[in-house]
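chain below, 632 aa
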Amino acid sequence: MKTKNTYITILFFACTLLSACKEDFLDRKPDDQVDAEQVFTRYNKTNQLVTDLYDNAKGSNSPLVFFSHFSTAPVTDEAEGSTAEGSLTNKFNNGDWNASVMPAGSSRGQYWWSLYERIRKANVILEGVRKYKTPDNPLQAGDLNKRLGETYFLRAYFHYLAARMYGEVVYVNRTIGTTDPMDFRQESFHAIVAKINQDCDSAMALVPPSWGGADFGRVDQGACLGLKAVVAWMAATPMWNGGTFPNDTRSFAAEYAFNPARWNTAKAAAKAVIDFKVEGRQRYALYQGHDAADFRDDAGINNNNSKVPARLWDLYHNMEAFQNEAVFFVTRDKDNNWQGDIYPPSWGGSSRQMPVQEQVDEYEYIAPDGFGYPVYAARAKKDGYDDANPYESVKRDPRFYRDIVYHGSTFKGKVINTASGADKVGATNSTTTGYFLRKILRESWNRDKSFSISGPPVWRLPEFIYIYCEAVNETAGPNAEIYDLLNTVRKRAFMAPIPAEAKASKALMDEYIKRERRVELFYENNRIWTTRLYLEPSSPKETTKEQAWQGAGSTNDQRSQKAWPYPKSQRMINGMKPVEDPAGKIVVEGKKYKMQRYFIESRVFVTPRHYLFPIMQDELQRTPTLKQNPGW
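prediction:
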């Protein structure tokens, strides 16, 4: 919490939210209740407060730019970040952050102090409306209640963001005055979830089932159900439900023993989203535009050598896809400058965020028997997979070709060459991993054309399908229902189904669910949280793989080529580079190549320290009743 001098009055926060506020209005005394009355006795000004609170929510959790100018992908085993912006993401990977200093320029309002400022703004709105009896919209009766409902949701949402990063946090449901004692106390994660649910229920009673037209994207009942499902799933995962948390000094550690009922709660909450109906019709459905033979981009041109189905392009740019699948999203997340940062240098880009081999390996191949298997499966080589020709020796999941630019791929009508020229591995502004990011891009648009995109939704329908399937698998074991449900998401992406034996194996079904989540939600601000929720960096399974990798050769490159799948420990990343070979199967610009794995870097991920973010030391000094997270 902030000190008393930052717990200023209703007036200040009201004014800072009002885009039309005049400077003299800001200069008035902070305890001038007349000013608060002027704000909250006018619907249009109160409406603007809520509108700006939405903008705060966008800044606190934008999938494409969670850290300033970077997504969360480069601080996970999804991607590597460049040295741009002071090498911001690399500082996280090097362990160059602590309870006193976060990487400079990384904050976009997602850290403790900003989240609680925004929670305060929500409380200011809720209390101001009650105290001053804010009138309804004279042009549209009922709007005030909707604004109140949205504010309840946003208060819950900011607390969810805080709990996601910090775990045991303080739930603040009132404004804090300048003379109030700074004796705030954290609560258990499960207590926080219960209060988030209460605020979501308050919101659901006031917001409409859905919005249409220009209001589409505002908080509706579906978003409230979505938030309840997400926190229920988090509460059921190993971090908060029976997992072995090393050196556990959390205040409420005793409450985190395994309780199977938590998975039942997650199952019911996710099913409520999947089954949600508006006026008798299913609210959410998987987007089905275009057929398997359509590979045209948004300009109507097949510039990708018939590798990327048009349907998969549409998921992030087509309004019908958003209307079908988006449970909650923020608008206009990035623009043409972001796209330029991602483009390969041969197209004037600077490859700021590059996929790594750990992510690439998660895209399955389609076997001769018609099912999908991981490329590291024991049967892969027999089925034709060749690690020297990993992209074309077998057909990979179509989402791979949509998400990743690789050596020999066709991008914007041109074959990419990472062996020489501007796109060569290690060249200036080029890839260090052998890959460029393709997901989210609009390939028909050049970086010199001004445009903006909404980016991926914060939550979309497949995420809730995965939560439901996982919860069923955990509570009752695999069955035909979840097998078919997972395959509907895969079929939408023109991907082969899961092998039938998964219906009889809980462990195998769990592997497919988690791999599906990782592939479908790649680069959507998901992996950074799931690897922590499942305590992967300290799990015996992953540490055993890490030890096997260490012993697989005398050099890191030898290990990279011999020992995989790679451990999900978040302590290293690998890449793939082209090597000229007369017997190579990949031909680019008249030369034959084979691909070769190589080690890129070690990373710092210390458990339990890096499972939760640190509360800043100055916050602890100002509020001595707060307790620091384990390991910091």
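Residues 92 and 350 are 21 Å apart (CA to CA). The first strand starts at residue 79 and ends at 81.
thats it, cya
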